[in-house]
């Protein structure tokens, strides 16, 4: 096959196009993967909307470009220098395509290296029948993890890293999670699975806050019906008057950041994952950081491949049921309906996974029905 269908960002304006493009040629250190399933991420929505972030991050010069970075698939072809992967392997891939000679990579921090390419942002992505990826970022999947779950290990890894932090010391502790998007919901499920004793979620969508409770949140607080002061008072009341041990800031706006830093106790930890559209936010530096003696962990991607290892084990052993977060399973051809669901003002959808083939979609729908 010399051509394939793909979802492409063609012009610097809202929307994307399903079109026919050449199948990618692989370099000597790359593999060609036949995509089975792919997940839509918040980054894809930014690119779909072509907002200020997408315009500044990607720019007109890179268009047209295939978008998407979350996927699972089967290796179709390997480059001549590839040693650890063979045709027929079931794989996913790390989105952060790191430079192995970068200082951070040499120090074991590949996920935050300089000179990094992002799949679907800096190079053609996975919303296509085939994708080319370097061997160094390929993750081998076990066949007991279905396509739809293997496809979302990348965002699930974000949530896992945010929950566990650097030391994984979370068992028996309390946690606030801001937001009710897919990462926040996944974080609830991982926190419950890994032993967090008391979980608070601060959200705004009634359907997604109900999902949070289904996934294990003990308390949900709506920003629509409570004030910041009421939320902090409630959280402290339920945590011996001190605040939570851990706060995950997943949203990035001023109100969410204030909730996270005010709700965490002295000596606690804040995982900072949300991206602020303003870049500059107000923070009570003295009282919320210095005198509190807190730790702040910036969460950029996933730890390569430590986080992948943990997520894969949780899915493979079936200790973690993430199906409730996958609100929709659809065909790639129905991408417009999928993006409409995710950009609707009263959005109830969380994670949407797209399939390339109808038979795979039908099997996934059966599995999801059995799990819910």
Summarize the structure.
This protein is of the alpha/beta class and 372 residues long. 31% of the residues lie in helices and 26% in strands.
Please write out the topology.
Layout: E1 3-9, E2 17-22, E3 30-39, H1 42-49, H2 52-57, E4 65-66, E5 70-78, E6 90-93, E7 96-97, H3 103-106, E8 117-118, E9 130-134, E10 138-140, H4 147-150, H5 153-164, E11 174-178, H6 182-193, E12 198-203, H7 206-215, E13 219-222, H8 228-237, E14 244-249, H9 254-263, E15 264-272, H10 285-290, E16 295-298, H11 306-316, E17 326-331, H12 335-343, E18 351-355, H13 358-371
Parallel strand pairs: 11-12, 11-14, 12-13, 14-15, 15-16, 17-18
Antiparallel strand pairs: 1-2, 1-4, 3-5, 3-9, 3-18, 5-6, 6-10, 7-8
Helix pairs in contact: 5-6, 5-11, 6-7, 8-9
Give a description of the structure.
The mean pLDDT is 95. The chain has helices at 42-49, 52-57, 103-106, 147-150, 153-164, 182-193, 206-215, 228-237, 254-263, 285-290, 306-316, 335-343, 358-371; strands spanning 3-9, 17-22, 30-39, 65-66, 70-78, 90-93, 96-97, 117-118, 130-134, 138-140, 174-178, 198-203, 219-222, 244-249, 264-272, 295-298, 326-331, 351-355. The two termini are 38 Å apart. It folds into 2 domains: 3-152 and 322-371, Quinone Oxidoreductase, Chain A, domain 1 (Alpha-Beta Complex); 162-298, 3-Layer(aba) Sandwich (Rossmann fold). Helix 7 links the parallel strand 12 and strand 13 (219-222). The protein is built from 13 helices and 18 strands. By secondary structure, the protein is an alpha/beta fold. Strands 3, 5, 6, 9, 10, 17 and 18 form a 7-stranded mixed beta sheet that branches. It has a 6-stranded parallel beta sheet with strand order 13-12-11-14-15-16, with helices on both faces. 46% of the residues are buried.
């Amino acid at each position: 096959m010399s051509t394939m269908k793909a979802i492409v960002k063609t012009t610097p304006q809202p929307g994307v196009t399903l079109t026919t493009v050449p199948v990618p040629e692989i370099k000597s250190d790359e593999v060609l993967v036949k995509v089975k399933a792919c997940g839509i991420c918040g980054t894809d929505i930014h690119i779909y909307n072509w907002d200020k972030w997408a315009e500044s991050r990607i720019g007109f010069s890179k268009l047209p470009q295939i978008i998407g970075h979350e996927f699972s698939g089967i290796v179709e072809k390997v480059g001549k220098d590839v040693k650890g992967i063979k045709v027929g392997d079931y794989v996913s891939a790390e989105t952060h395509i790191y430079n192995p000679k970068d200082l951070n990579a040499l120090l074991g921090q590949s996920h935050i290296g300089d000179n990094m390419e992002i799949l679907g942002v800096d190079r053609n992505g996975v919303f296509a029948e085939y994708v080319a990826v370097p061997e160094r970022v390929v993750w081998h999947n076990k066949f007991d993890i279905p396509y739809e779950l293997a496809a979302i290990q990348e965002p699930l890894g974000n949530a896992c890293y945010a929950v566990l932090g650097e030391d994984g010391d979370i068992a028996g502790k309390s946690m606030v999670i801001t937001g009710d998007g897919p990462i926040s919901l996944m974080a609830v499920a991982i926190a419950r699975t890994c032993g967090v004793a008391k979980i608070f979620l601060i959200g705004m969508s009634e359907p997604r806050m109900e999902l949070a409770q289904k996934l294990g949140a003990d308390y949900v607080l709506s920003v629509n019906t409570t004030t910041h002061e009421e939320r902090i008072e409630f959280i402290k009341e339920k945590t011996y008057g001190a605040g939570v041990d851990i706060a995950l800031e997943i949203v990035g706006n001023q109100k969410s950041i204030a909730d996270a830093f005010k709700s965490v106790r002295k000596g606690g930890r804040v995982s900072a994952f949300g991206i602020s559209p303003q870049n500059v936010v107000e923070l009570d530096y003295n009282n919320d950081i210095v005198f509190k003696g807190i730790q702040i962990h910036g969460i950029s991607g996933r730890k390569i491949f430590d986080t992948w290892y943990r997520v894969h084990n949780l899915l493979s052993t079936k200790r973690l049921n993430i199906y409730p977060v996958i609100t929709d399973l659809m065909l790639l051809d129905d991408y417009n309906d999928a993006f409409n669901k995710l950009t609707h003002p009263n959005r109830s959808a969380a994670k949407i996974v797209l399939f390339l083939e109808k038979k795979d979609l039908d099997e996934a729908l059966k599995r999801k029905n059995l799990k819910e």
